[in-house]
Design brief:
Layout (H helix, E strand, L loop, with lengths): L5 E5 L4 H12 L3 E6 L7 H11 L5 E5 L5 H10 L4 E4 L6 H6 L1 H21 L4 E7 L22 H20 L2 E7 L2 E2 L8 H11 L3 E4 L5 E2 L2 E2 H10 L6 E6 L5 E2 H12 L5 E4 L14 H7 L7 H14 L1 H4 L5
Parallel strand pairs: 1-2, 1-4, 2-3, 4-5, 5-6, 6-11, 7-10, 8-13
Antiparallel strand pairs: 9-12
Length: 325
């Protein structure tokens, strides 16, 4: 058990934020969770995750939007924070093309609010959840020193803005900053706009799977528990670091579908669509820095992770079946 430190986790009802919060709580940290509980996807998922966190006596929750700086300020005043893990974000590459303004107001301006309050209230550590989407146009495997100057979606561009602002606060004010670039996170209670969630649900209900392209695209699928472990390892002082958290073992989309078929016991039908211009054909993380600096590497294989995810969907099918995707 750790000494009781207090960590603010933004986006605590989100997919990654909730798992990070849960692992922190089991390790003895006090967690202040905030989330605006927006309706980008079915809020029942967020409430399910939140109910799991509320079982812990060392968890306190505020329904607050990171765009609301005055509400955030009250939380910083009420709690002596040792670190902030910023998991709050507007996610989803394709939807960012439809509503780019909200992505910048949350992912860039919202991040600025948090950084400025860290400066004002002397919070020593800041972790930013970023994305492998920044590596668009680069050759795989992706390593952290590659230039990330060609974002191909407003989502990726907003995350690059957040990264740049985080560096500025490190440079000007000495804030200890770790930027974590996550690679295709999946697992139980995930986001319904992610391919694996949609595929499981479609296969179970007998609907055809919508495939953009021919299914040959590959992703560095990384299990949620591995991501949460790596994120918490990044709490130590490091100055300023950008670190990939990925599986470092990319798989084709078609293999993921085969595993879903295996564990649901159903065969998939397909409806092919044109490959989306804002999508990447492949992601693959070089995780040498994560191994060296964080002592971290992934432990859960795609097969084990998909089995766990399918099991969760089956066990919660009574309400998951009605989630719109």
């Amino acid at each position: 058990m750790v000494l009781m430190n207090t960590i603010l986790v933004t986006g605590a009802a989100g997919f990654i934020g909730s798992k990070v919060s849960e692992l922190l709580l089991t390790q003895g940290y006090n967690v202040i969770g905030i989330d605006n509980l927006n309706e980008y996807y079915d809020v029942r998922l967020k409430l399910w995750r939140l109910d799991n966190l509320k079982k812990y006596t060392n968890f306190k929750f505020y329904q607050v939007d990171i765009e609301n700086v005055e509400a955030l300020k009250i939380i910083y005043q009420l709690h002596c924070l040792d670190a902030v893990i910023n998991e709050a974000a507007r996610a989803g590459v394709r939807y960012s093309l439809e509503n780019p303004h909200i992505y910048f107001s949350t992912n860039a301006a919202g991040c600025l609010n948090i950084l400025e309050l860290c400066r004002e209230y002397k919070v020593p550590k800041f972790i930013l959840a970023s994305t492998s989407s920044l590596y668009a146009g680069q050759e795989t495997p992706f390593y952290e020193d590659l230039p990330v100057n060609t974002p191909i979606s407003p989502y990726a561009a907003s995350k690059k803005s957040a990264e740049a602002m985080a560096y500025t606060y490190h440079y000007l004010y000495g804030l200890d900053v770790t930027v974590l670039r996550y690679f295709t996170v999946y697992g139980p209670a995930g986001r319904p706009d992610m391919s694996y969630f949609r595929f499981i649900k479609w296969i179970m209900e007998g609907s055809p799977l919508e495939i953009y392209g021919d299914g040959s695209q590959s992703r560095d699928f990384t299990y949620i528990d591995d991501i949460a472990r790596g994120t918490i390892n990044a709490l130590k002082p490091m100055g300023y670091k950008v670190i990939n958290l990925g599986n470092s073992n990319p798989d084709r989309l078609s293999r993921m579908i085969q595993l879903i078929e295996k564990y649901t016991g159903n065969k998939a039908r397909f409806k092919y669509k044109e490959f989306h211009k804002a999508d990447m054909s492949a992601t693959w993380a070089d995780i040498s820095k994560a191994r060296l600096v964080l002592g971290w590497e992934p432990m859960i294989s795609l097969e084990e992770g998909i089995k766990n995810t399918v099991d969760w969907v089956i066990n919660n099918w009574e309400w998951v079946a009605s989630i719109k995707i």
